[in-house]
Every structure is written in C-alpha cells, then in structure tokens.
Amino acid sequence: MVKLCHWTMLTGGFWKCCIVSGHGVILLLFLFSSVVSVYVEAYDNLLSGPVAQYTALSQKIGGDVQKHVRNASVLTSLLAPMSKVIQEVQAFREKNRSSPLFNHLSAVSESVPALGWVAMAPKPGPYVKEMQDAAMFYTNRVLKDYKEKDKMHVEWVSAYVSIWTELQAYIKQHHTTGLSWSQTGPVASASGGAPAPPPPGPPPPPMDLGKSSGGDSGATNHNALFASINKGADITKGLKHVSDNQKTHKNPVLKAQGGPLPSGPKPFAAWPTAAASPARTLPPVLELDGKKWKVENQEGAHGLVISDTELKQVVYAFKCNNSTLQVKGKINSITLDNCKKLGLVFEDVVGIVEVINCKDVKVQVMGKVPTISINKTDGCHVYLSKDSLSCEIVSAKSSEMNVLVPNKDGEYTEIPVPEQFKTVWDGSKLVTTATEIAG
C-alpha cells in the first residue's frame, strides 16, 4: 500500500487529498481538516463497500488476479503517479497474456483508466461509464467460462463492475461536472508549507472601440461614415473617373513597369446566405419494421437486446455510439453503419455481417457466421467462436483491424489483419500479397 497526501484549499476549508495505490487501482481520498464533508463520507462508503469486496474476492481467487491487486508504485506528485500506476496495471496484463486468468486481468486493464475521472470535467460520470463498458467483453468472457464452474468468479465480476457503478452514482451526486475544487482558494505545496498566493484577478474590461486617443475624433469618424451610407445612390457621385490609359490591364506601358500593384481591402471570401441551422438530434429507434430490425441514433445505450428473431429478419444499426447491442437467435444478416464505439454480440447469422463507415467497434460471434465484411472502418475487433473459425473476413479501405481466435484452453490469440500489400507482375497477371511489415 502506497499513499501520498497533500493539502489544498477546497470549498469550505483546507483539505487533504490522498492517492492510495495497492488494490489494482488508485483511489482518491479527501479528508477535511476538521469537519467531514458529505461527499467524503460517501466516498468512504464506496471504499468500504464494492472496493473492499472486490479486493477480498481477488485475494481468494489467487494467482495472477491476486498479484494484479497488489500492484503499487512510489508516488511523487498528485496526478502523475496515477497515470504511472494505471500503465503498470496495463503492463502487468500484457506480460501475462498466457495466464489462465487473462480475461480477469484484461477487464481491469481496459477499465482502470476510469480513475482519471478527476481530470475529466465537465463530464466525469460518462467517462467512467465509457471505461466500464470497455471491460464488458472480458467480463462477459469470465461469466461465460465460470458460470457453471465457480461462482466465486461470477461474484468477482459483480463486485468489480459495482465499483464503477457506485463511482458513477457518487460522481453524479457530488461532482457532476468535475471535482468540487474552490476556484479561488490557494494551493499548498506537497511538503505542507504555507499556501501559495491566490491566482491573479480577472483581466481588465475590454476596450471601448467607440473611443479613440484623439478625443471625439472616433465619434466624428463614425458620424461621417453613417452620413456617407445614408446618401444611397448619390454616394458614387464623389468618385473620380479612371480613364483607360490609367488602367494597368489596358495600358501596356504601365503593365511593363512591373513592381507590386497597390492593393486595396480584400473582399470577404464568402458571405453566408442564411444562418447555419442547429444540428438536429434525432430520437433513438429500436423497432421491427417488416423484416428489418432498425437500431438508430442510440447514444450511450448499454444493454440493447434484440430477441424473438426469425431467420428471414435482418438487423440494421445506424449512427449508434458508445452503446452495446446483443442479437439473440438465428438471423439473416447484420449491418453496422456509421457507428462509433459500438459493441455487437450475436449468436448465428446465415448471411453476412457488414461493418461500414464505423470507428472503434467490437464484434463477437457466439455461434456461426460465414462472412464478415469490413469497409471504410478504423478500428474493428472481431472475436470468433470455435464454430466460426471458417468465417471469411473481407476488408477494404480499413485500418486497425484485429481478429481474436480462441485457443484450446479458452483464451484468445489476437491477430492483426494486414493493411499493407505488395503487388507484382508475374508475366501474365498481377499477384498481390501482404507485406511482412503489415503482419
């Protein structure tokens, strides 16, 4: 267990901010010098509840999970050590990819960045939720592997997930838009010295453009300008006529003299014809329209489920972000279009699964699928089941694609899909192969 504390000014008085490392995570503790605040007491309840249960179950499971929970480092400042320990948690997982408890380690590794919520104003709660969802694939694997074998692992998943659930509730109640730091209070050094001076005051008021250093000349110039504008069509009567021999483009002599031409004020590049219309927020959709299941405009929707499916039906997911979708039963086809950070889990597809114009999506096959097509997509992880190893994966104009293949022991081997190719002429046709650098 490693702890670093320093005093700082928060709303209501001096506070002591501590970072505690040693439970596989780093926890911020806020201690008031004389009176315990309501959100300090709430945080203590979080520590004594889900965190304590998660730690106890990790010790009972043992092995790499127990080692993972003991991870710690020397802390030298307030936030930098948090990032360092998070990296150590993730590095521990990478060093133990062959561990029989790799899914446990991965669940913690994928979600532990949620501890950075203290610096994620103004939406720390949604950030924690996003990190929690990042671990869903691995917690589901733990549940699948141990549901019928060892209930302790199921309880471990429940305890770990509840940490982030309770933390979100805590943030929503006490730090909705960020930590309740005082905006003007002094900040003391880590050594406990005198408080630092307060930040400088607000900037001076903006300069009045209607005034000038020449007394009333500014107002006079403005009056003259408006008087000219009010002339209407007569405003051109004061302009001097320019003859053709004074125009450069019509006088070869002037043109031959060269040199820079006098430049006047530049016109606007464009003048908007109408005010930009505000972006429309379309309502979320999850419905069966004929033979098509429509899943549209879902934002932060976790736990979307399509059941009671039929073989003739298809699923079309459009513009679904930070969401998860589960499709039960056997279905004809599934299409993901313009989705971002979407997790898809399905059982059986007799046709094709298409991923188009997406970013950072995860697709998990629980049963069988003959073909998966990936087009114009950046970031796609495909988890194959033992029954879908013969699946054809066709990709075009895409990057950061990985296929995860199950091993005999139930673990996954992650294999990148080549993105760089070499094409040569063999005398009769073009022959294209993946380059070595592409893996």
TrEMBL record:
Protein topology in the membrane: Peripheral membrane protein
Transmembrane segments: none
UniProt superkingdom: Eukaryota
UniProt main location, coarse: membrane
Keyword Lipid biosynthesis: no
Sequence ranges assigned to domain C-CAP/cofactor C-like in this UniProt record: 283-417
GO cellular component: cytoplasm; plasma membrane
Chain segments carrying region Disordered: 181-222
Location of the protein in the cell: Cell membrane
Pfam families with a match to the protein in the record: CAP_C, CAP_N
GO terms, molecular function: actin binding; adenylate cyclase binding
SUPFAM superfamilies documented for this protein: C-terminal domain of adenylylcyclase associated protein, N-terminal domain of adenylylcyclase associated protein, CAP
Gene Ontology terms describing biological process: actin filament organization; cAMP-mediated signaling; cell morphogenesis
Annotated Pro residues bias: 195-207
Keywords: Cell membrane, Membrane
Family membership noted in the UniProt record: Belongs to the CAP family.
Protein's recorded name: C-CAP/cofactor C-like domain-containing protein
